[in-house]
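testing teh design pipeline on a random one, pls ignore if ur not involved
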């Protein structure tokens, strides 16, 4: 759906991995999808077709395997362009830890405000997100459509930055694996049209 001639950006979080299933923070660890994650990726093909996948002017993916595999299984691998700015937030010393383990060691910690020791700060991930949006916003303003395959935290920051929030605002945008979100416009103002739409809820 478009609004007053404006396009839209579809965000896709990759399918399940062993670490996403167990709640472990996964950034640069290049895990494959599980069998369930691969099936989720195949089911995405129908959902994206319903959104008019043939009309996407741009198909972007994180270079990490779990995002690339999801894009390929969703039927868009032949058109995929890798963008290093879509790699997941670098968790540094938090890599592989669960939120509960981090909270036990550092009560009150939040990735979106405190960043990751030995990894990226909120300001650094915000710079990466803004570079991606600098590619996408002109296309959408001109009525074009794109799809982006990436990871939970970087996509949450993309959503926050799209609507003018700082990276800390992404804490308010929950995002599950293998979900669709749509960034669009309301009377020319960047807006979120759909968020965290699970494939199980659709055809």
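output:
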């Amino acid at each position: 759906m478009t609004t007053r001639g404006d396009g839209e950006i579809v965000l896709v979080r990759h399918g399940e991995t062993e670490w996403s299933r167990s709640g472990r923070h996964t950034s640069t660890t290049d895990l494959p999808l599980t069998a369930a994650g691969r099936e989720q990726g195949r089911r995405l093909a129908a959902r994206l077709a319903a959104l008019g996948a043939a009309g996407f002017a741009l198909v972007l993916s994180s270079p990490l395997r779990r995002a690339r595999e999801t894009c390929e299984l969703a039927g868009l691998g032949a058109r995929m362009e890798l963008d290093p700015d879509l790699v997941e937030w670098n968790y540094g010393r938090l890599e592989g830890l669960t939120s509960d383990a981090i909270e036990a060691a550092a009560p009150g910690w939040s990735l979106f405000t405190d960043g990751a020791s030995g990894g990226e700060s909120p300001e650094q991930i915000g710079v990466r997100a803004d570079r991606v949006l600098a590619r996408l916003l002109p296309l959408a303003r001109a009525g074009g459509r794109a799809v982006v395959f990436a990871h939970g935290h970087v996509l949450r920051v993309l959503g926050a930055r799209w609507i003018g929030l700082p990276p800390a605002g992404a804490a308010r945008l929950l995002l599950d694996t293998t979900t669709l979100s749509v960034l669009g416009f309301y009377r020319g103002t960047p807006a979120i049209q759909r968020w965290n739409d699970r494939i199980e809820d659709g055809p």
